[in-house]
Each structure stands twice: as C-alpha cells, then as structure tokens.
TrEMBL record:
This is Outer membrane lipoprotein carrier protein LolA. Keywords: Lipoprotein, Signal. It comes from the Bacteria. The keyword Lipid biosynthesis does not apply. It holds the Pfam family LolA. Residues 1-18 form the signal peptide.
Amino acid sequence: MKNIFLGILFFTCSLAFSQTQMSASEVSTFKKEIANQADKTTSITADFEETKHVSVLKNASKSSGILRFKGEKLLWQYNAPKKNAMLFNKDNLKIKNEKGKITSIDLNKNKRFKQLQQLMVGSYTGNLFDEKSFNITYFKNGATRFALLKPKSKDMSKHIKEVTLTFLNNEDTVSEIKIVESSNDYSLIKLKNKKLNTALGDSVFQL
C-alpha cells in the first residue's frame, strides 16, 4: 500500500512540474507565431464544450454549442442543455435567452460586458497578449503551450482572477480557455472541429 501511495504521489508531482516556463526567446517566437496567425485569420468556426465548476454545487454543469467569429462579430450560441446566445457586434451586444427574448446592451456604457467582449474576441483570435492590461506568464509542456493572464485593472479583477489560454499540438489558435472568477469558480471551454477562414455570410450572425 505504501509503494502504491508513493507511486501515485510521484505521478502527481510529475504532472505538476511537467509545465515549464518559456525562455524569453521562446516567448518572442511564440508571440510572433500567434500574431502572424491572427493576421491571416478572417473567420473562425468551431464547436465548443463548456464545463463550469461552482463551489456551492456538488457537480459541475456542462453545456455545448457553436462559435462563429468574423471581423467584429462574435456569435457564442449554446445549444444544450438550453438554447441561448450572445452576439457581439462592434459596440453592441445582443443576448437571446431560452425563451427567445432578445436584450440589447451598449458596450460603451457597460464596462463589464466590454471587458468580456475583449476577452472573448482576443481569446479566439489569440490576439490577447496585451501586456498593458494583463500580467502574462508563458509555459510549455511538450507540444502544448500556455499563456496565463492576470488582469491588472481593479475593475476586471473584481470579476476575473485569471485566464489560461491553451494552444495544443503547436497550433497557433486557442484550443482551450480556462476562466477563473474572483470567487475561484471557473469555466473550462474546449474548442473542437475548428475551421479557419471559411465563408460566413451575415445570416450566420442573426439571433
């Protein structure tokens, strides 16, 4: 039993320390690769799975849906277990609830949703390495790379503690996003079936 325990402990410690911080030259190369990909990306389509962990709930909640991104438009649509959606378009946000009611929000008058827009759009393009707004640390584990972002502003810190962007298999677009709230509750979003630069008409961005 002791040997089994030590084996588990060693395995756990190995996982914990398998992530190493990137060197300055590695960070520079990584950022250039991400920026180059962002410049070439005109649209993104993907399926997503979101798992939300809330401390007061015994089990995590799971949801899934589709993501569509083009220019200044970002559609984040949940299909299960309930249907609702968020559509960001320049300085406007429209939210459609499960009953079909649509609410419109002026992002210039709502800092929290404006920050959410910047976070979401930046996450999917990979163009989120704004060191004026975030303290950023970069890590690697084999072919997987991570960017850990901690907001500098007090306004954003009230809602978001940190964000981890994961780039799998040396890809230059985000595959996983972990958002930790100030309460330590967190959401893990996994993007699947990603497609870049596909033709997306305006009808795709209708609620």
